[in-house]
Amino acid sequence: MDELRTIRVAAITRVEGEGGLSIHVRDGAVTGVELRIFEPPRLFEALLRGKALEQAPDITARICGICPVAYQMSAVHALEQALGITIPPPLRPLRRLLYCGEWIESHTLHVHLLHAPDFFGCASGLELAKSHPEAIQRGLQLRKLGNRLLEVLGGRAIHPVNVAVGGFYRLPRRTELAALVDDFARGLEAAEAAARWVAAFEFPDFEQPYDFVSLWHPDEYPLCAGSLRTSDGLLLDVAEFEQQFTERQVPHSTALQAVRRATGGTYLVGPLARLNHCRDQLAPLARALADELGLATPCCNPYQGIVARAVEVVHAFEEALGILRAYRPDSEPRVRYEPRAGRGCAATEAPRGLLYHSYEIDNEGLITRATIVPPTSQNQARIEEDLRHYLPQILALPDDEVALACERLVRSYDPCISCSTHFLKVNWVRQ
What we know:
Blueprint: E1 4-9, E2 19-26, E3 29-37, H1 44-48, H2 56-61, H3 68-83, H4 91-115, H5 125-131, H6 133-154, E4 163-164, E5 167-168, H7 174-178, H8 181-199, E6 213-216, E7 227-230, E8 235-236, H9 241-244, E9 245-248, E10 257-260, H10 271-278, H11 284-292, H12 305-326, E11 342-350, E12 353-361, E13 367-373, H13 375-390, H14 399-411, E14 426-430
Antiparallel strand pairs: 1-2, 1-14, 2-3, 4-5, 6-7, 7-8, 9-10, 11-12, 12-13
Helix pairs in contact: 3-4, 4-6, 4-12, 5-6, 6-8, 8-12, 11-12
């Protein structure tokens, strides 16, 4: 008998973006998985055309309320390349410091309130707080420290306003950053405790032969600079991104999906990719903690992305502390420049993974073309592929348990379209 079983998530609630999930099963075999993104296109690339290049950091920050710094950093680095600008050495640590603040606030939100409840059978972070109040309170305090860093260095926690092409509009006073040192020292200890907490979770047995893609730098854990590294051994200049990767349109999504251009294969960006490629570049305490926790690399279990994020929080606190303690405001805040025609591209590591920007500008400093490839669009096709491989293990379960298991797998990637505590109710249709 021909039996068709369809799982539909009509809409995913409390997310940054709008999307759903459709899974089709015929005679016990998975025939289709669609991560449906139906939010109307936001057209940021078109919005940037004709704008003065100085507007790009503030415009692109609006793409994401959780990781605006990532969009600002990729934008200013690409535009600085187009203009032939090299920022003074004292400004580079400040940009990494700002990025550390974003990693802390974004990762701790996901780890404690969005992902951890899945490992305790809780429907929300509020429910988990009833049984594990100390852990959730610790997570909230860690996130607060990340936001404080964004406020001091970026001007405000949401959509910072201090990032400029050529540097910053204003440099913080030494006393402003020195005032954060004691709290960040305590935060580092709390971050280590949080990592030990999540490392003790029970993880489903599911691994995939991922093609990991991330930035790689010989001297530092990737944030703002580096070469592109892939699992098949390529080490590429960021300028080769569009020759190696391409975006494609799929009928069920208004968001493009990125694949390897040569093979059409999917790939994965994010904390697991960074950790697998750059473990040796972790700060000393973070690297020792990864060893202590038994976090082996390569790690190919997406559920353990929560541990990788927790280790990266430790790294962010450790690196931030070093910059805070050493800071001396001994530079001009910005490099002055004259507009000129040119093209520039850059990639940085957003909390969720590699973020690529490319711009062309004219002699008047107006943007004539913009290309932005966010992490979630690069992971979407891989998420669908993982669901296809994972579903056969759980199809014998009742419908609601299958739906919940799919939600948990999707949440492990922390996609911008699904960074929430739960999906809407799943309706099953049997024909």
